[in-house]
Specification:
Blueprint (H helix, E strand, L loop, with lengths): L2 H9 L2 H8 L4 H4 L7 H12 L1 E4 L4 H11 L11 E4 L12 H13 L3 H26 L6 E4 L9 H7 L1 H7 L5 E5 L18 E6 L6 H16 L7 E6 L8 H7 L8 E7 L9 H9 L6 E7 L9 H4 L1 H8 L9 E5 L8 H9 L6 E9 L1 H12 L9 E6 L2 E2 H10 L5 E6 L2 E2 L15 H14 L11 E6 L6 H11 L5 E4 L10
Parallel strand pairs: 1-2, 2-3, 3-4, 4-5, 5-6, 6-7, 7-8, 8-9, 9-10, 10-11, 11-13, 12-14, 13-15, 15-16
Protein name: F-box domain-containing protein
Organism: Sphagnurus paluster
InterPro entries: LRR_dom_sf (IPR032675)
């Protein structure tokens, strides 16, 4: 590199380098630490801004040492910490001397080896807990903390106990956002914790084999912690999942108080509604916050094969929405799972009609919408108005077609972001009376789709769309082929994103 170029780089303000770095994908940004001193700092900030502890080995020990060392200045960069407690494995190869004496003791005491292994695991857990807890509690700029668990993971209860109440109590004065997905038994220990600045709280519940009495005891203590957030809480997210045969969220909702600043509410549970015996308690909770809520989200996850829900419980989302018959004046963001599948969409459309002049973000997922249903949705959103405040739309479609895209462009000219999930691409929409059979192969359908888009490109000339994200479940046509044609015919399109879901599992 020439000296003139080096001087130019040195004179470039730090703010400019940060702006440049915002256009570089984060995984690549971490590799640019050798470009110059500024990129070294940017790379370090990217590396240490979010830290995940998912095992304890030499690399984790080194990370703790770096974060704890004030001379490196890396600890002050960390804003977010995620902990996924690990399994402590017994030592594989003890020394020869120890092996000999262990053999002798094992010959005299059949339980010796088991006790020895358990003692070693417990000693190692205490070391891991201390190192991680001391490191996390020393991060002075920490504002977000997440603790994760999956019911099918093996786990040490001691780690979850240590990383829940004891650690949260040490960092509570800094936390703005807290996400807990832990074995339910440890939640009762949170009652005494005070989080004076917490604004966002997310809880995921899995009761497994706990009885109703045990769950009630846990909720009695846990709800004290939640209700103590009344002065600061702006976002509340509640998720429940299987296996939880005795879990009833109605018990929890009945205990919840009022949160004067609550703006965002999210509820996710098995789609059959088996974990909510009374939708009325959710309606009552929402109506207490009618004047402040800006975002409502109802989504679902898998249900238990052994559950025996009633027909009404399966309609938990439509029943809640149909009971919200008074407009929410601040509501602008709505995310709804269209469950049960093939159910009447009238309650959902009626709820949207109540707020048609104010919704800027709308997401309807889990059910494939037909062309006619999307047309009805747009009629509901516009409600005889030529303009809609809608800026972001996420839909799951039966098929992506040229008429459907044209309808979205012409009826929602101010839309900025569109996200679509679909099963196939066709040239012409399947209207009422269509038998569903396609007259051409999928390759020919896409060829016609491209030809018709090019022939009608004037429809998209004034469309304000900036970003389109897609998830094509059929994998044909390829993502790159769709990107080429849509970027070519939509002048304002700057970002084309693949929405393919990430694989479920631990982030390594």
């Amino acid at each position: 590199m020439s000296s003139a170029m080096e001087r130019l780089i040195d004179r470039t303000p730090l703010e400019i380098w940060f702006m440049i770095s915002s256009f570089i994908p984060r995984p690549f940004l971490r590799q640019l630490y050798a470009v110059n001193r500024t990129f070294l700092e940017i790379s370090a900030q990217t590396r240490y801004e979010e830290v995940t502890f998912y095992k304890f080995d030499k690399n984790t020990k080194s990370l703790c040492r770096i974060l704890n060392d004030p001379s490196t200045g890396r600890g002050v960069l960390t804003r977010r910490v995620k902990v996924q407690p690990w399994l402590v494995q017994p030592r594989v190869k003890p020394s020869k001397k120890r092996s000999f004496w262990n053999f002798v003791k094992g010959a005299l005491d059949p339980q010796f080896a088991q006790r020895k292994t358990q003692a070693w695991v417990e000693k190692r857990m205490k070391k891991d807990i201390k190192r991680v807890s001391d490191t996390v509690s020393g991060l002075e700029n920490l504002s977000e903390y997440s603790l994760e668990w999956k019911e099918d993971w093996g786990y040490h209860r001691e780690l979850y106990q240590a990383f829940t109440a004891p650690l949260i109590s040490r960092i509570g004065d800094r936390l703005v956002k807290l996400s807990l997905n832990v074995p339910m038994g440890v939640l009762s220990e949170l009652a005494r914790i005070n989080l004076p600045h917490l604004e966002h709280f997310s809880i995921s519940l899995c009761a497994k084999k706990l009885s109703q009495t045990e769950i009630k005891y846990i909720f009695d203590a846990f709800v004290i912690f939640v209700n103590n957030l009344l002065h600061t809480l702006t976002s509340l997210s509640i998720t429940s999942r299987v296996p939880s045969p005795e879990l009833d969220l109605a018990t929890f909702f009945q205990m919840l108080g009022v949160f004067p600043r609550l703006q965002r509410f999210s509820l996710c549970m098995p789609f059959d509604g088996s974990q909510l015996s009374d939708t009325g308690v959710v309606v009552q909770f929402l109506n207490k916050h009618r004047e402040t809520l800006r975002s409502i989200q109802f989504t679902t996850n898998r249900c238990s094969a052994t559950a025996n829900p009633t027909e009404q419980s399966k309609l938990w989302i439509p029943n809640i929405l149909s009971s919200l018959d008074t407009p929410y004046p601040q509501l602008c963001d709505v995310h709804i799972a269209l469950r049960p599948l093939k159910a009447d969409l009238t309650p959902i459309f009626k709820f949207l009609s109540l707020h048609s002049g104010q919704i800027s973000h709308l997401s309807l997922v889990e059910q494939n919408l037909k062309y006619a249903e999307v047309a009805e949705l747009l009629n509901t959103i516009l409600n005889d108005s030529e303009q809609s405040p809608l800026r972001r739309l996420h839909l799951r479609l039966e098929r992506l077609s040229r008429p459907l895209l044209e309808m979205l462009a012409s009826r929602l000219p101010s839309l900025a972001r569109l996200e679509l999930t679909f099963a196939e691409v066709i040239a012409t929409a399947a209207h009422a009376g269509h038998d569903g059979a396609l007259a051409h192969s999928k390759e020919r359908q896409f060829e016609l789709f491209r030809e018709q888009l090019r022939a009608n490109r004037q429809v998209y000339a004034s469309w304000a769309i900036n970003t389109i994200g897609i998830h094509n479940e059929s994998r044909y046509p390829p993502f790159s082929s769709l990107e080429r044609i849509l970027v070519n015919v939509i002048p304002g399109l700057a970002h084309f994103i693949d929405l393919k879901p990430e694989p479920d599992g631990r982030h390594l």
